[in-house]
Amino acid sequence: MMLVKNYPIGLINLPFILVGCTIKWIFFVFKGLGNFYLKGIIDGIRSIGKGKINTKFKFKSLILTQIGMIKATFLFFFRTGRAGYFAKGEKN
């Protein structure tokens, strides 16, 4: 959750961010993890502005990550048998 990244726009998006966090919190409450979620949010808010944000990345690692995600997507569709679902022309 990046509230600091686009701060002026963040003020416009703040109500939507709060609604989203509330919905996620309710979900985690039903799973029995509501307290852990709130502690994580509080720790995240406390850590804003602390430390240095490292934005450097290597192009090779970016490409390898993208390839891994594409491979995992194809594996998911073929292992679950959903690849043929779209090939048959059926719609959602």
Q: Keywords for this structure?
A:
extended, 92 residues, mainly alpha
What does this structure look like?
By secondary structure, this protein is an all-alpha fold. It folds into two domains: 1-56, no CATH class; 57-92. It has helices at residues 7-30, 34-46, 59-79, 83-87. The chain is extended and about 35 Å long. The protein starts with 6 loop residues before the first helix and ends in a 5-residue tail after the last helix.
Short description:
The protein is an all-alpha fold and 92 residues long.
What is the terminal-to-terminal distance?
A: 31 Å
Strand content: under 5%
Percent helix range: 55-70%
Structural class: mainly alpha
Got a strand count?
Answer: 0
| Whole-number mean pLDDT | 76
Indicate the radius of gyration in whole angstroms.
19 Å
Counting structural domains, the number is 2
Shape: extended
The helix/strand series, from N terminus to C terminus, equals HHHH
Main sheet properties: none
**Which regions contain 5 or more consecutive residues with pLDDT less than 50?**
none
**Total count of helical runs of at least 4 residues:** 4
Write the layout of secondary structure elements.
Layout lengths: L6 H24 L3 H13 L12 H21 L3 H5 L5
Helix pairs in contact: 1-2
